[in-house]
Design brief:
Structural class: mainly alpha
Helix content: 55-70%
Strand content: 5-15%
Number of domains: 1
């Protein structure tokens, strides 16, 4: 499922909601390619630390955890930067996945 977000300048971003298969398979690279340097570095450091102590198994486990949460983190950071749902379908999708609160 994808949601469309837009900012005040008219820039639109189509973002996936839910499990991140790209993060699952490629680790921190999707965050790096999206320009989300903060989370790319955080993921890289955590995977390196856990992987070094567990012969790589810890990096694999942290990759699974990030695959479940990264898209939600990315969308919340876009909203903090001023992006808003571009249409009612996107708003409903984000509300149903508890990324934004339901408006009264």
């Amino acid at each position: 499922m994808k949601a469309v977000l837009k900012n005040q300048g008219g820039l639109r971003k189509e973002v996936k909601v839910g499990f991140s298969w790209t993060t699952f398979f490629f680790g921190f690279f999707p965050a790096l390619f999206r320009g989300d340097l903060k989370w790319a570095v955080i993921m890289l450091v955590i995977e390196a630390i856990l992987g070094s102590f567990t012969l790589g198994i810890g990096a694999w486990i942290s990759g699974i955890v990030f695959a479940f949460v990264y898209n939600k983190i990315y969308i919340k950071e876009l909203i903090e930067k001023g992006y808003q749902p571009a249409n009612d379908d996107s708003r409903a999708l984000l509300e149903n996945n508890q990324i934004i609160s339901k408006t009264a």
